[in-house]
Amino acid sequence: MDVKTYTFVAPCPLLDIEAMQTWLEDMSMEGYLLKGCSKVRHQFEFYKIEPLHTRYRSTPVSNKIEEWNLRPNEEFVSITEAYGWEHVCSNIRLHIFRAYDEEAREIHTDPIILAQAIRQLGWRIIKMALIWLSLPLIYMLIILAFGGANTFWQTLIIDSTGIQISMAYVMMFASVKSIVELVRLCRLYKQLKRGYTPVNRKEWKKKAPAYRAAFRAYPIILCIFALVLVMGRATYRDNAAYKDLPAPGADLPFLSVADMAQKSDIQSAERMEDVNYMRNWSHVLSPVNYDWAEIVEVVGDDGTEGLVSIDLFYHEARFSWLADDLAQEYLAKAKQASTEMTEKPQTDADLAYFYYNVHGAPAAVLKYGNTVVSVEFPRTDIDTPTLKYEYWIEALDDTLSRK
Amino acid sequence: MARKTMETLTDSMFYVLLALTKEPKFGIEIASTIDILTENRVNIGPATLYTVLARFEKEGYIAEIAVSGRKRTYQITEVGLKAYYEELKRLKACLLDADKFERSCE
After folding, report:
1. Closest in B47, B71, B72 to A108, CB measured
2. Taking the model in full, what pTM does it have?
């Protein structure tokens, strides 16, 4: 027959050993007999029974006693059983024993030895905290190793707010919880070294409401802190002299960095992220990019005067994959609602696409190594050889292929 | 000045070593030997006993020589014997001092 069980959250810290033991004994007097406990959480499961006087004792988990499943060593269990104690459950900090016999010998009879066990548990907590704290460190190392060079990692790790919040949460959880526990253990350790014998009946009810409230609020507060930390970082980066990102321009597949940041900032930036938090764009831009639009007054060989306008978007990508991405994006954009030229100028470009844009103006996408250029000639209506589109393309080609 | 735990032995530690000086024993045997020897004046709790055994094993004072089911048999080592006799010498010296002082007051 299944016996109904009841779960309660401990009203006192796990490592307040005296309060914990007293609470369990009081629960027993109220008719709740401990059945088990959560390995990591502060939850305890009880059977409903007739009120019964029971003694509970707990001992710190140590390297010798603990097995991987957190059960105490069989020999230890057999010794405690020989003295009338039954092992009820274990969590990551304590083994909990119960005796129905009032005369059963105390499981800890030497405060100095208990102090040693407490000290051992303290080291264990420090080790666990270091393991948890190493996770954000690994995260940072991955960013350093792959962050700037790989779109996959960039998207998965650097741009993932979820992972950043988790990391911030882990750091705070590991630090705050471990510090609180270590302070408590240190206090008990010092008392024990002075010969203090743990009190078997400790008042826990007074502090219980405050502890329960703090216990429930703790994860929420940590989440808020983590959010504030991550969002604060984002806000800081956004506000650091950058304008709001306008919607992507109709004629441009990208916004150039020059649109968003000061030139001096761009030049001093180590990483694209430093000058541009716009994640959707950052992986295709590089700090040396610029756009140039100019209307030039020119005189042709035959003396014809006129105006020529040039719109040029120049990107010098730091990596070849970046240049490829960039060129492909421009190419895709160019192929939308445009007409490819039938007579194409000769160039030394690795990639060249000549077309007429939606307004009928000649344009080209050119790629030379890591340099990508998208150029348009909105006004080339003057029929002079030196002002012709091909002339400018040739000039551009000469400049860029020599580069 | 506070004593370092392994420099001088606590009562529990001393009696555990004492119980092992003549022959290897397993956990409960050690505890019952101490109970009989001290006529229940010194009681060692199971968690205390186990913590002491673990510590001694780590420090090389004792060695586990056999495992039979849930029982593990421990034997005192040279290092453990040395520590035991040093502590015994220290305790005897304390007793002699106390005795000398009592006699001088008579």
Report:
1. B47
2. 0.60
